[in-house]
Amino acid sequence: MDKPCTWMRAKCRICERSARPDHLFLSDTGQVPGTPRLPDDANGNVPGAADADKSVEPAAARGLSVTDVAGRVGVAAATLRAWERRYGLGPSGRTTGGHRRYSMADVAALQRLQRLTHAGMPVASAALLALEPASQDNLPVVGERHGSDRLARRFAAAVDMLDADRIARTADAVLSERGAASGWTEVFVPQLQALGKRWEATGQGVEREHLAVSVLQAALVRHTRKNTRRHPQPGTRVLAAATPTELHTLPLDALAAALAEAGIVTYVLGSLPKTALHTAVADTSPAVVALWARSRQSTDLALLRGLLTRAPVVCAAGLGWRGPSLPRSVPHLPDLRTAVDAVLAWSS
Ligand code: B12
Questions:
Q1: By CB distance 3.0 to 4.6 Å, which of 27, 122, 180, 270 could disulfide with 257?
Q2: Do the strands 332-333 and 313-317 form a parallel or antiparallel pair, or are they unpaired?
Q3: H or E stretch covering 109
Q4: Measuring from atom 88 of ligand 1, which residue has the nearest CA?
Q5: What is the DSSP string of 177-225?
Q6: Which domains does the chain carry?
Q7: What ligand 1 atom has the least distance to the C-alpha of 189?
Q8: Residue pLDDT, tens place only, 39-86
Q9: How confident is the model over 208-223, as pLDDT tens digits?
């Protein structure tokens, strides 16, 4: 610990434990963008912080200070500040005076990070898992080495190490062990969401996100080809495209991979302008056209309506379509499993 730090950031937790200021990478005053500031009341309490857990003692009900949390988590306060700057694992509130106030949910995330690093995971990968939404809170714990948790950890670690070969092998294992729909929904979606959250909180990790997406896309295409070959007489044809402004097209590859397991062929055409979309529909005569929009801003109702006379079934895929009132004949597919079930029902 006395040696100068020459480790990559991901390994510097070793140095952080020794709390040597020359090993910290960023200014100690930096604040993560978007962290809400909560006004103090007359007693210095933080309104709303108590909501995280009403059963805890009064100190926690006001939101915990960095020193309190350092004691609970068992690391130096400087380490907590470094984790906040590097990985976005900070307090959900601050007092008007700028003091950090941690909720019990924030503390739980930090404790998860500790468990994972103690189990041997690099701190950056552990932070990605610890940042996952509460709904995926049955987090990997030490000793739990099965199913999607094990593969999720392996995937996160491979992404963190920028190890394309390991990402590919893990993705292949996920797809063959769990199938495309479960693998995508239970392993890849949480990982991608965590990468997005990290970027949103810290502005970091774009290079890892891009690598994960390109390697994962190749794995999904491999899985699709392998399963298509297993069905010598492919059934229904589906055309899957995104609206012209929607660049998040990876879910279309996941759809194709899941449908291929049932012998359904999908033309995955990415984001298309109107004329190209019409040409593709005319040239492939699909039984189903799925028009994907992840966000409300990228929906295009006119484009969707223009497809109605061109294909037997037109559906609106993705959460973007939740808001707009869709034509009666257009089903909305909010998630991958619903999409697969619907296509299977139409094709039978
Ligand atoms: C990879 C990625 C990219 C890649 C996409 C590459 C590709 N080929 O797909 C690139 C680099 C292109 C990109 C660009 C941008 N991105 Co981006 N990106 C992501 C990331 C990390 C994963 C995207 C993804 O595949 N999501 C799909 C799954 C994994 O997530 P989901 O949509 O939440 O899943 C839900 C549903 O969609 C549904 N579902 C999931 N899969 C499927 C499949 C089917 C068939 C169906 C029907 C439903 C379904 O179920 C899930 C649960 O409800 C997300 C993080 C995230 N949360 O998604 C950010 C994210 C979507 N991006 C974001 C942003 C801001 C951008 C940019 C504006 C950044 C910029 N400044 O340039 C651009 C915009 C591009 C555009 N015009 O569309 C934001 C969007 C914020 C918002 N308000 O929606 C996110 C959420 C990151 C964040 N946390 O801030 N991005």
A1: 180
A2: parallel
A3: helix 104-118
A4: 196
A5: HH-HHHIIIIIIHHHHHHHHHHHHHHS--HHHHHHHHHHHHHHHHHHHH
A6: 1-118 (1.10.1660.10), 125-229 (1.10.1240), 233-347 (3.40.50.280)
A7: 29
A8: 333 333 333 333 333 333 444 457 899 999 998 888 899 999 988 888
A9: 999 999 999 999 999 9
